[in-house]
Amino acid sequence: MKWCCLPFKGWYEGAGERGAAILVGRNRVGDPEFILQHRAVDKEVESLPDPEFPMSIISEVSINFCPWCGRNLNKWYGKNVDELYRPGLKMPL
Fold first, then answer.
1. For an engineered disulfide with 3, which of 9, 14, 23, 66 has Cβ 3.0 to 4.6 Å away?
2. What is the residue extent of each domain of the chain?
3. Using a CB cutoff of 8 Å and minimum separation of 24, what contacts does 73-81 make?
4. Residue among 66, 64, 70, 69 at smallest CA distance from 32
């Protein structure tokens, strides 16, 4: 795989761990999808103690361009989406 930049590769490889990560997959209509995800806890943590206020343990936002080098992600990775897809990391709907 030829990565657009080293930070993108590093954040892609860190998916599932606490902190920020990049996810690659397909949206509901089958188009390539790139997501910046943040996890409050590692993927293995199934539940948290009951907090005093509502808390999101995962947040996700779709992105079109690399946050570090600015490349168009669909143009750069569009043909490799299925190779980069890792089921089970995206927040369930």
1. 9
2. 6-41+55-81
3. 73/4, 73/32, 73/34, 74/32, 74/34, 76/4, 77/4, 77/24, 77/32, 77/34, 78/32, 80/1, 81/24, 81/25, 81/26, 81/32, 81/33
4. 64
Q: Hunting for tokens 């902190």 — which residue is that? A: 19
Residue pointed to by tokens 């030829």: 2
- pLDDT of 10-26, one tens digit each? 999 999 899 999 999 99
Could you give the CA distance from residue 37 to residue 39 in angstroms, rounded to a whole number?
Answer: 7
Question: Which among 60, 55, 74, 57 has a CA at the least distance from the CA of 21?
Answer: 60
Q: pLDDT for 39-91, tens place per residue?
A: 988 877 776 777 787 777 889 999 999 999 999 999 999 999 999 999 888 87
